[in-house]
Amino acid sequence: MTENCALILGDYINGYAIVKELFDNNVENIIVVTYNKKLAYFSSMVKESYEIKQSKNDLLSILNTLKRTYSKLILFPTDDWFVEQITELEYHIQDFCFIPFNPSNSLECSNKVIQYEFCEKYEIPFPKTISINTKQDFEKIYDINYPLIIKPVVRNDLSIDVFRSRLFQNSIDLEQGIPDLSRLIDHGIRFLISEVVPGKSHGNIYAYSAYISKDGQILNEWAGRKLSQYPDDYGVFSSASNEAPDVILEQGRKLVLSMGITGFCEPEFKFDYRDGLYKLMEVNLRSMMWNEVGRISGVNLHYTQWRYANDLSIPKYIQDRSKKVILFYYKHELLNLIFQKDYSMIFKSLWKEPNKYWAGCYKNDFKPIYKNLIITLKTIISRFKK
User: Fold this and answer.
1) Does pLDDT of 156 surpass 60?
2) Is 69:230 a contact under the CB 8 Å cutoff?
3) Which CATH number fits domain 5-104: 2.40.100.10, 3.40.50.20, 3.90.1150.10, 3.40.190.10?
4) In which element (H, E) is residue 77 found?
5) Is the Cβ–Cβ distance between 69 and 2 less than 8 Å?
6) Is 128-195 a CATH 3.30.70.270 domain?
7) What is the dihedral of CA 163, 169, 174, 177, to 10 degrees?
8) What confidence tens digit (pLDDT) does each residue in 123-139 have?
9) Which of the four pLDDT bands, split at 50, 70 and 90, describes residue 192?
10) Other C-beta atoms lying within 10 Å of the C-beta of residue 76
């Protein structure tokens, strides 16, 4: 039996950034487990990599295999599926795994209904929202304004294929979508329908990211701004920076502490120009895709977890927001430039900034870049064929 290991669950751009952060801080036993080989699986910074099927039993099997070699597995989940599986497996793994969140309230804290209830109670701005739990609840929608966005309360259901989000511009769009939504409701999926905070998401999405101890202390934190998304206004990270007003830090702290969240947390807010408020979009309990912004602006949240899990003293990091840094994800930037109308103007303005970094491009670690370029080319070809 040897020392502890850092077990990165998921190997996409957020998992790969965690590997880089831990490697740069001299963590030796870095292991990746993934159900879809993409980036970190191929990294030379990783001691071992394993591919599993996307099933709870496969995950438990590999955890049990690794416990024969390592004293403790310190878990770093990078997507909602892993968070859900760890929650369900808590009883089986708690003796040999460090779980970086509280399994007793993780599903509750991931529930957007609960998140918005806390917002209302603690006076944190959020969009006007209606819960859709039954088909009869569609009758409530007349009370809010279009356009509307609908999201599942918990997106990664174990057996049902459900969308991430869907936009309804008017009542006709909604009427056409109701049959599909009704089918999903019959399968136990619940939804939130919210007013869309107007304005482009490009440059208007902000995030607070923190690591919180099990006794409710914020060990380290940072804030940033999502500058562009892929494939559209409701997509995922393409570029981001360390810019954020202090109100994002204030609202983020108030929300996560009031909810009793431990471990990683990441509330996202969107600026509403109509009333000047930053309104909660969602709260994540794992590292987001652009978590590397924290590291390049001076805050090592994942190394914070490593030291905390090993009962070591925790460095106090202070984020540098005096100097603007921009993180690009080359895959999404290339796809945006090819397929998103007028995106070149956004890209040119960002490119003028002096302090630029490329997510997933690390010195002397070429295989992940090569593999991702192949995936990118296949994506481009498939989109041109549509």
Assistant:
1) no
2) no
3) 3.40.50.20
4) strand 73-77
5) yes
6) no
7) -40
8) 999 988 888 888 888 88
9) confident
10) 29
